User: Fold this.
Amino acid sequence: MALAAARDLLIETGPQAVTLKAVASRIGRTHANLLHHFGSASGLQKSLAQYLTDQVCGSIAEAVLKSRTGEGSVRDIVDLTFDAFDKQGAGALSSWMLLTGNEDALDPIVDAIHALVDEVGEGGHEDREMHEDTLTLVLMALGDALIGERLAGSLDLPRHSARDLAERHLEHALDRWKQEHGA
Assistant:
C-alpha cells in the first residue's frame, strides 16, 4: 500500500514529493510506521525502485519473447521501456536518487535489468550483443524521460523520434537474432 502511494506521488508530483511523511499521510499511517518499515527515506526510495522494476520487467520479458515469435512487436518492447522511465517515473526517481547521493538505491533497477537480460538471453555470443542492445535501449529511454521532449522540440523533431530510433535499433537486433537462430 505504501509503495503504491509512493508511486502515485512520484508520478503526480515528482521524486521530491516521495517522502515518508507524504506517503504516510496518503495511506493514513504515521511517519513512525513507515520509518519502522523502510528505515529511512532512502530505504523507501530503494523499495520504490524495486516495486517499479518488478511491475515492468515481467511485461518486457514477455514482449521480447513474443517479438521473437512474431506475436508481438519490437515497438511493444520500446514503448514498455520508455513508459517505465517516463510515465511510470523511473527516470525521475533515478535522477533524484543520484542527485541526493542515494546511488545504491538504483541497485534494484540495475539488478532487475540484468536479470531480465539473463532470462531472455540464451548464453554465449548473443548475450554480449543483447547486453549492448539493452544498454542502448535503457539509456535512450532514460535520456528521453529526462530531456527528450525539450530536446526533440529544440531540434524540430517529433516527440516520438527517440522511440522511433530505438525501434529501428531493436528491429535490427531482432533480425540479427532470427538469422542466427534460423527463425
Notes: The chain is about 80% helix and 0% strand. Residues 125-154 form the longest helix (30 residues). The chain has a mean pLDDT of 84. Residues 67 and 73 are 5 Å apart (CA to CA).
